[in-house]
Amino acid sequence: MKIVKYILAYALGLSLLVTLVFAKTNLLTDSTNSTNQIESNKSKPTSLLNEGVVFATVDGDDYTLDDLIGVDGTKIEQEIYGLLQRGLYDVIKEKYAADLPAVDAVTTKEVQDFYDDNDLQNRGSFNDFKGQIAEFLKTKREQEVIQKFISEAIELKKVVIHQTPPEPDLINFLNKAPTIDGNPDAKVVIIEFTDLQCPFCQKIQPTLESLIDNYQDRVGFYFYHFPLISIHPNAFTASLALECAHDQGNFANYKNRLFAEQSKFSKQDLLNQMKDIGLKGDKMKAFAECLESEKYLAKVESDIKLGKKLNVTGTPTFFIGTFDAKSKEFMGKPLVGSHDYKAFADLLDEYLNQ
């Protein structure tokens, strides 16, 4: 069985170079007298990604991709698309290296602020952490500059991606009731995965607000957290705070405030921002207790797990399509990145007119 899995891993890597078609060849030639013979498929070459395709037969038993690695063809297509996308980003970075804006140096104050805001005092001295923090902030800054440059290059048509991401097919996406706007009973939905510290997520908010205003009860708007902790370490805590704000009926106002002040996500900042929008007394106390206890830790982790299952790798990522409330199943198309109003409206109208 291990041999078959190793062969599968090799074939999947090779398939990227041969346009995902497995060439007609013998997988193994064994001159020994093993009792478990492994036969090659000598029929017409078939895409490995087709549902139900038999990869190998072992001692008379057929094994498909599902049997061997427990995922379906759609998931593999999505993973391959993600690999190609990341490879394309590397090409763009190399080709336009001279055009990339300079990255500002990390200051000692920024390192100190990070150390203080993330409560690292109990884990070691500032001198213990300052080198790691400076390197982390430098890498984060470089990634943000590159991501912004790539997004602008796509908008200016300097970069054109000719293939669309594989469509998710009948995904059971409802883990727990997400925060929602619009009509919770609508058959057409927008599912948003967002990072509260992501500049592109901030950029798209006015477009989403216009969509909510214009489509109102015809569309349901679902909100999921997907903090990119590797580059936005405080975004996870902000997600917890936003869920606590939802408890107090302040989801929309607090979300807008968080997007407006993305550099202020320490716990004290999050408390101050809630005070600034008017929460007082017992409600403010309840909010603070909710944040301190990390009441919604499981909820945010569940959102992240779901996003990974749907092959979300960056933010913002949207899924637009139809939702069956009885079966909890969604069928639609992904829309990745910060797009204009028309891109969303075209997809919404497509599903509303079905």
What does this structure look like?
The chain is of the alpha+beta class. It folds into three domains: about 1-70, no CATH class; about 75-155, no CATH class; about 170-350, Glutaredoxin (3-Layer(aba) Sandwich). It is about 50% helix and about 15% strand. The chain has twelve helices and nine strands. The protein has helices spanning about 1-15, 65-70, 75-95, 110-115, 125-155, 200-215, 235-245, 250-260, 265-275, 280-295, 295-310, 340-350, and strands spanning about 40, 55-60, 60-65, 170, 180, 190-195, 220-225, 315-325, 330-335. Mean pLDDT is about 80; it is low at about 1-45.
CATH class of the largest domain: Alpha Beta
Structural class by SSE content: alpha+beta
Query: Which geometry do the CA atoms define?
Result: globular
Return residue spans where pLDDT drops below 50 for at least 5 consecutive residues: 1-44
Placed side by side, the strands forming the largest sheet appear as 4-9-8-6-7-5
Give the name of the CATH superfamily of the largest domain.
Glutaredoxin
Count the domains.
Answer: 3
CATH topology of the largest domain: Glutaredoxin
Rounded average pLDDT = 79
Strand content: 5-15%
Major sheet details: 6 strands, mixed
Any idea what the radius of gyration is? 24 Å
Instruction: Give the helix proportion (percent range).
Output: 40-55%
E-strand count: 9
Order of helices and strands: HEEEHHHHEEEHEHHHHHEEH
Distance between the termini: 46 Å
User: Number of DSSP helices?
Assistant: 12
CATH architecture of the largest domain: 3-Layer(aba) Sandwich
